[in-house]
Amino acid sequence: MICTSVREGVECFFMSKKGCKFTGGTCYPVVEECGTCNRIVEFPTGKYCMIYPDPAAKWRIGTCDMATHIKAEEAEKAGKINPLKASKRMAR
């Protein structure tokens, strides 16, 4: 349904005919850790995440998995080689 509380005019999973079903009956604004994420949209009531209704909860358990401003450290992990496996490969 279309949100009628803080993100007016946007499709929202938590909206029902009786109002917002999310905890507290409303979405929460973004936190400082969200920074310059591309999923932040500004409304007259403030800045809100288009993915999560409570962005602070995602940052409490670690980094937000949908954050666009954080680069994955895949290249750093790929550079590490197990020395035992490397010696076995050389022996072949």
Q: Summarize this, please?
A:
The chain is an alpha+beta fold. It has helices at 55-60, 74-78, 83-91; strands at 15-16, 19-20, 40-43, 46-49. The strands form two sheets. It has a two-stranded antiparallel sheet. Strands 3-4 form a two-stranded antiparallel sheet.
Index terms:
about 90 residues, 3 helices, alpha+beta, two-stranded antiparallel ribbon, two-stranded antiparallel sheet, about 15% strand, elongated
Q: Considering DSSP H and I runs of 4 or more, what fraction of the residues is helical?
A: 10-25%
**What radius of gyration results from the CA coordinates?**
21 Å
Overall pLDDT level:
80
Number of strands: 4
- The dominant shape is elongated
Major β-sheet, in short?
2 strands, antiparallel
Order of helices and strands: EEEEHHH
Widest sheet, order of strands? 1-2
Please state roughly what percent of the residues sit in beta strands, choosing from under 5%, 5-15%, 15-25%, 25-35%, 35-45% or over 45%. 5-15%
Quaternary structure type:
single chain
* Helix-strand makeup class: alpha+beta
Cα distance spanning the termini: 62 Å
Low-confidence sequence ranges: none
Q: Please tally the helical runs, counting DSSP H or I stretches of 4 or more residues.
A: 3
